[in-house]
Amino acid sequence: QLLRKFAQRIGTNPAETWRRFQGLIVPPVFERVWQENANTEDWLNWAQQQDMVEYLPKQVLALSDTFTMAHGLELRVPYLDTDLVHWAEQLPVEFRLQSGPKWLLKELLTQLDGKKYAQRRKEGFGLPLGRWIQTGEADDWLSFLNRNDLVLWEHLDPATPRQWVKAQQAGKADFAQEIWNVVTVANWLEQH
113's torsion region: left (phi>0), alpha (psi -120 to 50) or beta? Predict the structure, then answer.
């Protein structure tokens, strides 16, 4: 049902699509404010200002900060640099919407000899766990799996994950994701 709501909010008009998505997270009073500003020629600046004042600090950044700090991490947001934001606000609306999302970043990257990065598919920022296992940097973390008293071993034969670790250490296979999953579940079972 949530996916259906998400799909229904996508439209060809960027202003209307933005309004529909904001309606998912902002109280109904937002509708009145939208109606007062939707017909202005400067709707994109208005919408971006609302994102900067309301959505980013009260939703995205607040949650991100809470989650990262809970794990001793500090989140960086380079695209919210004050000078960069002020510069981007000065760009004409037509220019910002010219060729789809992130087109300006991709164009700048291409001009700086980064075309292969500008055209590649999106990917997450995964840990280099496979490399860490191969180089021994994850040995302390992996030693957890050598314990014979883990609750996990009541449900799973320890031989398989231990074989994965040996194959990963030898560079014969990539089981990093599987090893991560096993260690995560094993830790969770020990704590609960």
Answer: left
Q: Average pLDDT of 60-85? A: 89
**What is the C-alpha to C-alpha distance for residues 10 and 169, in angstroms, rounded to an integer?**
46
Residue 133 CA to residue 141 CA, distance in Å, equals 9
**Residues 55-72: tens digit of each pLDDT:** 888 888 988 998 899 888
Measuring CA to CA, which residue among 139, 162, 158, 138 is closest to residue 148? 158
- Chain-centroid distance of CA 109 in Å reads 21
Residue 135, pLDDT > 90, answer yes
Residue 110 tokens, joined: 């291409």
Give the list of residues 6+ apart from residue 137 with CB closer than 8 angstroms, or none: 131
Handedness of CA 167, 172, 173, 176 (dihedral sign): positive
Q: Which two tokens stand for residue 75?
A: 């989140």
Q: Report yes or no on whether pTM surpasses 0.90.
A: no
- Is 20 in a helix, a strand, or coil? helix
Nearest to 145 by CA among 129, 164, 132, 130: 164
* Structure-block tokens of residue 155: 């449900």
Tokens 């991100």 label which residue? 64
